[in-house]
Amino acid sequence: MYVVVHILSILFYLLGESLSEPSNKKFPENFQFGVATAAYQIEGGWADDGKGVNIWDQLAHTHPEKIANNASGDVACDSYHRYMEDVEMLTNLGVNFYRLSLSWSRILPTGYTNQINEAGVEYYKNLFSALKENGIEPFVTLYHWDLPEPLQEIGGWPNPLLADIFADYARTVFSLFGDDVKNWMTFNEPKQTCLAGYGVGTLAPSISSSGIGDYQCAHTLIKAHAKAYHIYDEEFRPTQNGRVSIVVDTTWYEPASDSDEDKEAAERKIQFNYGWYANPIYHPDGNYPQVMIDRVADRSQKEGFPKSRLPEFSAEEIDYIKGTFDFLALNTYTTELAKWTNDYEIGTPSYDADVSVSTYQDTSYNSSAAGWRVIPWGMRRVLNWIDQAYDHPEIVITENGYADDGRLTDENRIIYYAEYLTNVLEAIFEDGVNVTGYAAWSLMDNFEWTSGYTVKFGLYQVDFDNPNRTRTIKSSAIYYKNVIANKCLVNTCEE
Length: 495
Ligand SMILES: *[C@@H]1O[C@H](CO)[C@@H](O)[C@H](O)[C@H]1NC(C)=O
Ligand SMILES: *[C@@H]1O[C@H](CO)[C@@H](O)[C@H](O)[C@H]1NC(C)=O
Ligand SMILES: *[C@@H]1O[C@H](CO)[C@@H](O)[C@H](O)[C@H]1NC(C)=O
Ligand SMILES: *[C@@H]1O[C@H](CO)[C@@H](O)[C@H](O)[C@H]1NC(C)=O
Prior knowledge:
Elements: H1 2-15, E1 32-36, H2 39-42, H3 55-62, H4 79-93, E2 97-101, H5 104-107, H6 118-133, E3 137-143, H7 149-153, H8 162-177, E4 183-188, H9 190-198, H10 213-240, E5 243-249, E6 252-255, H11 260-282, H12 290-303, H13 315-321, E7 328-331, E8 335-340, H14 351-355, E9 357-360, H15 377-389, E10 395-399, H16 411-429, E11 435-441, E12 460-462, E13 471-473, H17 475-486
Parallel strand pairs: 1-2, 1-11, 2-3, 3-4, 4-5, 5-7, 6-8, 7-10, 10-11
Antiparallel strand pairs: 8-9, 12-13
Helix pairs in contact: 1-17, 4-6, 8-10, 9-10, 15-16, 16-17
Bound molecules: 2-acetamido-2-deoxy-beta-D-glucopyranose (NAG) (4 copies).
One 2-acetamido-2-deoxy-beta-D-glucopyranose (NAG) binds at residues 64-65, 70.
């Protein structure tokens, strides 16, 4: 208890003039707290017991120069062998749920369902049973960026066949794990999969096809999600009674000024960034945002394409896709300013040119080690925007967090959580937004994609130089544990 009080007094001391005090309201009684991780970022065991190769194994092994310090997830936090230590940390934190992802190629080494890897299945069964023994609910993502390599060899997500192949994988895991798992998420941050993976090429599989490959990828992926949802709905929900969603991420885009142009630019940017995936699924009318349909069609025509580079959903597909969620899952970290600008010149097609909005960071705010500004009020605004745009859905925040250098006394992370969660409370109590859960990214320091091990988001530190991958508790974990236990951000909350 002394440690907690000490940390909170450091916190208040640091708050100074620039920040408001954390809210002293209590979270609603049924509010759920968790932490999040992803398979490739923590598991390691990349070739153990029959696991197949995925696109991140492939990128790290064939293009090490694309990852900071030539790092890979070959061992990562070694959770494949040390998951019981993870469960101990989760239990110590007292979380209500643990959001993790399945490694597709650990379960299906080739990506197809004709060959199931029993050792991979057993790994997840053991993990789920350890969570159950400790009263921790698993929230499971089917796809957190790690496509089996054989499926990339047939073109990856831009290939429409992937929708059915993913649906088969989904049916297999619902059937294997559905007795233990009641909260499913099909995809994590599809925008990163498509825009970074097949558009600008910064993430695996590192393909550059902006304005074409990214749209084709998204089109397949949204259909894949809908198929998985309907499979659950028809074949599993009657006996398993769980829920299915998709995690879509967004930055909040604040208009750079009060001008109508900048307001229009900010709205257009969030529609292209978030509405691209959210609208077809979460909006009562479905389909891509109209601004996106119109702008890509117009620019495609001027560029000399016979039809829009943005694929079209048929009326039947729009109906099949819309409403395929049981709650809305959101990842959000930061805020940027959006400024109106002249449309980019017609020339080489690109997603950025289709959007034609200039975005930048407000440098008066602190930056995290990931380069993202700490702007807590952006959380409240993005929650309100979503609440209004998608007809007051139930929202679970599936990721939010702060990156630093991995220090154990991590006051800035405590401030981040206290301030962002204050804005969640304000959204709930002052604005009536229906937020029912929150997951901190991340349980522990891990492999941060192309940043390798240079950027640390963990509540626990991991010693990546030690073969034991020793985990050590940070100050922020003690703070978060206290928040969960008391459903309160400060020492005492009003009842
Ligand atoms: C990283 O990998 C590249 C390409 O294989 C190699 O040329 C370079 O020497 C490696 N750098 C380090 C620090 O190992
Ligand atoms: C939030 O969503 C849940 C699930 O749909 C519902 O039961 C609850 O009434 C909603 N609460 C509010 C305040 O809208
Ligand atoms: C900004 O960074 C400084 C230096 O680390 C720190 O003292 C201050 O509390 C930080 N503020 C926020 C909002 O994180
Ligand atoms: C790793 O853990 C084992 C078992 O606890 C211990 O014997 C060994 O000394 C540890 N190794 C290192 C490098 O800390």
